[in-house]
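Exam review. A common question shows you a sequence with its structure tokens and asks you to describe the fold in words. Practice with the pair below. Do the first one on your own.
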Amino acid sequence: MTREPRPISSEIAWSTSDRITVRGLDLPGEVLGHMGLADFSFLQLTARRPTPSEARVYEALLLTLVEHGLTPSSLVARMTYAGAPESLQAAVAAGLCGLGTVFVGTTEGSARLLSDALRDDDGTADLDEVAATVVAGFRERKELVPGIGHPLHKPVDPRTPRLFEIAAEEGLSGRYVELMNLVGAEASRSFGRELPVNATGAIGALCCELGLPVRTVRGLGVMARAIGLVGHILEESENPMALEIWQRAEDEATAHLRP
């Protein structure tokens, strides 16, 4: 049986021999020299320019995600580069593959938590009750509440109040931000220990305030962290540590087997 082809279409970009158009804008004439990378990425994701307030909040959350030090993602990028220095893109890709439910991906988890909790909210829901219900559900399922707690930053993740401050300055601190803070407070009370809203929780809340689809939130981490990983790979090429890490791991892990 012959399959009837279905129409395919894209609204993002098109080109001719002398023209490049992205989201309805002329790339050389209306984008280059007129828009920053954050503004342009917002346009790419939403098909509209951000307002000045949205642009400031959006850029702040992207900047927060660029660099996190020698995390597993940056280490695996360095190790991959050590094995294949001819392929910088493979090293970046290797690092990005580790962005999941522990690192960076919790931005998506917290955004989904908030989006689900307020899906039917008409602005009258008691957010204290919503927070209690959310935390109780995670406790019952024996799951970690995404976006709260941090192994190093206690009792406050220093990035969170600054992100929320910027959002408040721009009139973009609404019910999602309020609920995220209440979830952190309820989780701290319920679990009996300090569980501050961390940067990924703050970013998840701000993505909801910006109206970004939940499915795009982890992508923001991918975009931002790619920049950080290129920096780590550049440093690795100039001041390598990957082979030393490999050798130390080999020596220590098998020390008990050696005569």
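Now try the second one, then compare your answer with the model answer below.
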Amino acid sequence: MARLAGIDVARGTAVLGMVTAHVGPDAPGRTATADRVLELADGRSSALFVVLAGLSLALLSGGRAPAVARDLTRARVRIAARALVVLAVGLALERLDTPILVILPTYAVLFLAGCAVLTWTVRTLVAAAATVALVAPAVREAVGLDADPGAGLLGDLALLLVGPHYPALVWSAYLLAGLALGRCDLTAPEVQRRTALVGGALAVVGYGGGWLGRLLAEDPALLSTRPHASSPVEVVGNTGVALLVVAACLAAAPRLPRALSPLAAVGALAFTAYTAQVVVVAAVGPQIVWQPLWTSWLVVVVATVLACWAWRAWLGRGPLERLLHGVSARVAERVVPRAAPVG
């Protein structure tokens, strides 16, 4: 599938949002209004990242016309291979022992789960996303896995599925929503307008419903809209914000290609950019996270944008993106080789 600049712009927005959530900014005497503005990046950026992951799965498997037969098998093999590479990098980043909660292991699990739903219709994907958003948080709350479930593979898997950070069971709603969006004609203005309208409605219903519910309910656990609450209202609200951002980026990218090219470059190198910021935090030390400054945040953001922009212009695909593409293509060719041409 041809690259869509708007999707790269949205992905770049998600990456810089996560950088903001991780390394600042902060300053003495900051107002409550500034706090609320800066908190917009926390939780919503990672949710946008996963919605875009679902959209990427759709594009990798045919876009509006889902792959079938041999092409579908190849797409599933490529996605599974990518998931394993992402998982390996994520586990390596976790071993750096930074204060950052690395999303990549959950991202990999969601990629693997996404292989099973590539043939679902848009209507089925939307219904599944809504069901997961409403039901999965209650299931996770009932499990109550907020502490270490024990060492070993089963304990690690349990944390990935229903743990306190990026629980895949709940966050699969974002993936399903993105996959449904990726099955639409993203270049059509009508689709972009409809996406924005749906996103706005979901944001109002999610965050507004959470605010109203907290006024009426005695137990607000499943009505919290704080970042990473993984409650139904937060998932609905975050999905709405993600759809709004994607719609805005799709509409703006063709109109402002030069102005948005630096941000699109970050999105095109999202895997590399995300990994690099974790490595930078490990090298600088945890104080950049626990004692964030405007200056350190600006340095990281500007350096990320300039490095990605230059690499994209001179060298094309990013280093980790090359690894991801190369491994997935070779594995797919070995497991499901392309049919030999006739004649």
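Model answer, second protein: The first helix runs from residue 5 to 23. The chain has a mean pLDDT of 90. Full marks require stating both points clearly.
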